[in-house]
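Example 279.
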Amino acid sequence: MKSFKEGQLFIVATPIGNLEDITLRALRILKEVDFIAVEDTQHSQKLLNHYNISKPLISYWSEKEKTKADKIIEKIKSGQSCALISDAGTPGISDPGYLLIQKAIAEGISIIPVPGPCGAIAALSVSGLPTKEFSFIGFLPAKRSERLKKLHELSFEKRTIIFYEAPHRLIESLSDLLEVLGDRAAVVAKELTKLYEEVIRGNISDLIKELETKKISGEFIIIISGKEKEFKNTKSLDEAIKEVKILMKKGLSRKEAVRKVSMDYTLSRRDLYEKSIAD
Ligand code: SAM
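Predicted structure in complex with S-adenosylmethionine:
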């Protein structure tokens, strides 16, 4: 006998790597529902086989979300219960789910969360960066111009910022973060809960240096500290001008020196450039 009412939608979190990271309740729900909506059948089959769960599966991935959502809603309305899972972690978090949930709400279907792992929260919990307030961005745009635009929008964000990133774009995105946000404290969390788990901490430039020496593969989360409140006024324009001059003596052009210093001091590049000429 089922422990819940018919015709409900369960949003079930599954492991982000280590198959033991699943709650007892999630396993019970997966065993009791009539069918499971999954992103990738092959991928989820591994988890389900591991726990001897055999259920009809409906594949539900981003491109098919619209048509598949209607089919799932129809089944739930006919009295069947459904668990939505994604390839890893919490459905809907940089994963499909949003559309199905919207449709279920519109149809008056009860939606029950079955919480568990989420990469962003796991990474934040070990980051050592402030956890009191944070901003989750998910994946940055793949196109550089759009990525830079997004980062400029975030440049005054005071809360800790969390990004998901694909391995082939990791260095590129870190370099853009460095350029737009300055050399802030940051963390790269790799393959959490898996065999090659690694958490690298430092300033963004340190992380880039370290990662450039490694083969980059696996899953990554980047966490950056927010803009510090006192940052803007901690150093004066005079100090910034002095630093520009020092960098120019070291061989940087005025433009390069101004770019570098303006990031550290959160001063407008144009102001610093003009004042460094006038000084
Ligand atoms: N829904 C998932 C969650 O709750 O975290 C996220 C799915 S999203 C499609 C996949 C991205 O999450 C990866 O590209 C990576 O940035 C991050 N991620 C997921 N699992 C991870 C892990 N074990 N270690 C590091 N990053 C992970």
